[in-house]
Structure formats: C-alpha cells, structure tokens
Write a structure and sequence with these properties.
The longest helix has 22 residues, at about 240-260. It is built from 17 helices and 19 strands. Helices cover about 45% and strands about 15% of the residues. It is an alpha/beta fold and about 475 residues long.
C-alpha cells in the first residue's frame, strides 16, 4: 500500500541541516574508549568522550548499511526479510511487571515462558521477541541464559538478543551459534536482532556500546534507537526531536560501520512525549503519530530500514484507553510501512507491564490491520453480476449462490470482538473484551504445541546454560 508521507522536500532539507549542526557543533558522547578511538582513527575530532562528527563522513558510513537483509529462524518457514516493503512484527519488550486479569505483579520466568508460547502461537507475530518481560525470580547475572534458551526452544521464530552487557551479548551469540551450526553460519545469515538504545540526549552509554560491539563484530543486526520523550529527553518540538533523533541514530550507525563495515543495522525510533502536567510518559498521542510518519519518510530518504511504532498505551488497565491509544500507534505504524515493529502486542502502562489480555487484543488489531492494508483486488468475478441476476429487485443475498460459496471466508472473522445481540451477550455472561481476551489467552496456552528441535542441539544448549550459570556464580 502507498506510504503516508507528510514532509515536503524543503522540510527534509531543513531537518538535514539540523542534525549536521548537532553532530559537528555539539557532538555526541560515547562512554566507551574503544568507540572514541575508532572515531579518532577515522579522522573525527574528539574531546574526552565527546566525538565531533564530520557530516559527510557520517553520510559515507550510512551509505555502507545494507538497505535490506535477512534473518534466519530455526524453522526456515519463519525466516524474515528486513527492509523494503516488508513489515516484521515483534511483541512487547522490557516490562518488569505483568498483568493477568485484575492482578498486577512482578514478572517471573514462568510468565516469560508463557509469553514466548503465545508469540509462537500467533502468526501475526514474526518474532518471538526479546525481553518479553523481566523475570525477577531468577538471578540477575544469569537470567539472560534462561530467556534466550526459552526463546530458542519454545519457539521456532526469530528472536532478539540480550543487551544488558557485552557478556550477555556474547552468550546470545554463542547460543545462536549452537542453534544454527556455528559462528560462520550466523555471520553469513544473521540469527538474531538486538535493541541498542541511546541514552538521550546525545549519549551512548558503555553497557549498550559493549553489547553493540559484540553484535556488530558477529554481523548480527542491531536496532540503534534514540529514546526520545519530548519534554524530557528532547525539546518540546517535533522538528527539534526529529533532528536529535537523526543525530543520535546516525552517530550510532557510523560507529557500527567502523566496527564492521557493511554490518546490518536498523534505524530505530522511539518517539513520544511526556504529560506536561504530571511529567509521566504519554503514548498513543497525536505527536507520536506525527513523529512516526516523519521517521518513516526520513528513513526512506536516507535509504535505511527502520523501526518504530507498536501497540503503545499509557493506560493502567486493558480498557478503552488501552485500545484507542494502541490503535493510535499501530495505524500510523502501518501507514508508515515500518520495517521492524517492536511492542506490537502486550504493552501496557507506559511499558511497565506485559499484559496477557492486551497481548490478545493487540493480536486482534494486527489481524484487522493486515486485512485493511491488503490491496483490494478488483476483477470481473468480484463484481458478482451473477448474484444480481439471481436475486433481482427487492430480494436479499443471504441465500444467494454467490453468498453460500463464500460466506465462510468473505469477511474478516474476529477472535475477540463480539457482535451478539444484547440478550445473547447477557446469556453468555456479559463479558467485556478484556475478559474474552483472557479466556482466549488461556485456551491458546492450553493448545500450545512445542516446536520440534533436534535433541542433540537441545542438550548442547542446555549444557551451555548450565556451565555458564556456574561460571557466572549463580
């Protein structure tokens, strides 16, 4: 479908001048000596941790980025293509809490595994995810091993790597090498994708950079994402925030290409605003949607695959606010043609909560939007002249041959929504969408089937996790 683009050529020119001024006059901080050293060797001016970048040098580095690339899944049918006209969807990422029904609690490893099973169960999600929730009942130093093992064994889709430290990134790469038959195999075709966030404004911190170095050296794609909430981490202006986003992302991309020229990266965007009365993050806002449209257009202008959007909301419960704010973000996500979509299912309470019911409702939204954004096919058969010839004047089409041949598949069939009349709805318990979603969630988990995995590979992964847990002191 056509992309929705709102920036004029003059506007793009002004934004282009803006990021060039930031990187050359204000500079970007890199809190890792090895990163600063790479820039210095490339002829860039450095002052401590601040790197002042030549914009033309930055553009030369950006030009090295592959416009499109593949990521392999252990089930080849679930391989994905990043870039171009392709959209890849991944679930919620990062929350320390979960919500199930009316209960909000610390996330556990059991929750992580259940969300991985849900991601496996719905074809609307192309990726099993990464930190679907933060399992607080497992040791901090080794929980990344359990999470990667769960993603690799409970699903056969692509997954996201751990980025808490360089050590965690190396473990992800080692486990991916075991799963796919060696380091060479994953360097040839990447096997995971990872999120590297900028500590906005204008700072790339050491932990993120440690992980980025590991993934770039292994040719595993990273999503280099400025974390921008207007009014807190960027000015209260969409154009100013877009300029900052370009400066931060381009600086991270330039570093990636110095680490390994030609390694795949994704231009990331996480752009919204704070509530100026409370200071709390706001999601599903008109400003975030405008920023999303602009980001997609800018990414295409610079020839980069991009990540943004999702089913974001600030709501504390799975209510009407959660639904309309998620749609306010997902709809522009589709209109912009986002290449990699994080937080596409399950995000609640400004990203603090992974919600089971919201996960299912977001799947419903994804299903509907996929139908809505499928180009309409029009040919002579679709005009159904024979149905008119059969029914003629004043009749109805319910029993027409054309209808009977197509009634099972002619319209979208929702998995959560109810279209029952009021009396039947009451007889069925008078359940709202959140309750119905919770019931479907449990049915999905009950019907889950473990995807097959070679026992030798499974055992080798398990042995690696056990050994590394011991080495890490847990």
């Amino acid at each position: 479908m056509p992309r929705y683009e709102i920036l004029s050529e003059d506007a793009i020119t002004i934004l282009d001048r803006g990021w060039r001024r930031i990187v050359s006059e204000i500079g970007v901080q890199f809190a890792k000596p090895e990163a600063v050293e790479l820039f210095a060797k490339a002829g860039q001016r450095v002052d401590g941790e601040i790197v002042y970048l030549d914009p033309d040098f930055v553009m030369a580095q950006v030009a090295l980025v592959p416009k499109e690339f593949d990521i392999q899944a252990r089930n080849p049918a679930n391989n994905v293509h990043i870039g171009g006209d392709q959209m890849v969807f991944s679930g919620v990422y990062g929350p320390p809490f979960v919500r199930e029904g009316s209960t909000r609690r610390d996330a556990s490893m059991a929750d992580f595994r259940r969300f991985a099973m849900l991601a496996q169960s719905y074809p609307e999600l192309d990726s099993a995810g990464g930190i679907i929730c933060e399992p607080n009942d497992t040791p901090l130093d080794s929980r990344h091993l359990d999470m990667i093992f769960a993603l690799q064994t409970l699903t056969d889709k692509i997954y996201m790597g751990n980025v808490v430290s360089g050590v965690n990134a190396r473990d992800t790469i080692e486990m991916s090498s075991i799963l796919f038959g060696g380091r060479e195999a994953i360097e040839e075709t990447p096997a995971c994708i990872s999120l590297i966030n900028c500590n906005s404004p204008l700072r790339w911190d050491d932990r993120m950079l440690d992980a980025q170095f590991e993934y770039n050296l292994a040719n595993q794609p990273v999503i280099l994402t400025p974390f921008l909430l207007m009014g807190a981490m960027s000015p209260v202006s969409i154009p100013a925030t877009l300029v900052q986003q370009l400066a931060e992302a381009f600086a991270g991309i330039a570093l990636a290409q110095l680490i390994r020229p030609g390694c795949p990266v994704v231009f990331g965007s996480f752009l919204s605003n704070i509530d100026m009365q409370s200071g709390s993050p706001s999601f599903g806002t008109p400003e975030s949607a405008i920023g999303l449209f602009c980001t997609g257009q800018l990414a295409r202008h610079y020839g980069l695959p991009f990540r943004t959007g999702g089913g974001l909301t600030s709501s504390q419960s799975v209510d009407a606010q959660a639904g309309y704010e998620a749609l306010m973000t997902l709809l522009p996500t589709f209109l912009a043609g986002t290449n990699f979509v994080m937080h596409a299912a399950g995000w609640l309470e400004a990203g603090l909560v992974s919600s089971y019911e919201k996960f299912i409702i977001d799947i419903e939204l994804l299903r509907e939007l996929r139908v809505e954004f499928t180009p309409l096919e029009i040919d002579e058969a679709s005009l159904a002249f024979g149905a008119h010839d059969e029914v003629r004047h004043g009749g109805h089409f319910l029993g027409a041959e054309h209808t009977m041949e197509r009634f099972r598949t002619c319209f979208y069939r929702p998995i959560v929504s109810s279209s029952s009349n009021f009396e039947r709805w009451l007889r069925d318990g008078g359940k709202d969408a959140a309750v119905r979603a919770g019931e479907l969630c449990q049915k999905t988990l009950d019907a889950y089937e473990l995807p097959a995995l070679d026992s030798v590979v499974h055992d080798e992964l398990e042995e690696y996790v056990t050994r590394r847990r011991r080495e890490l002191g847990d």
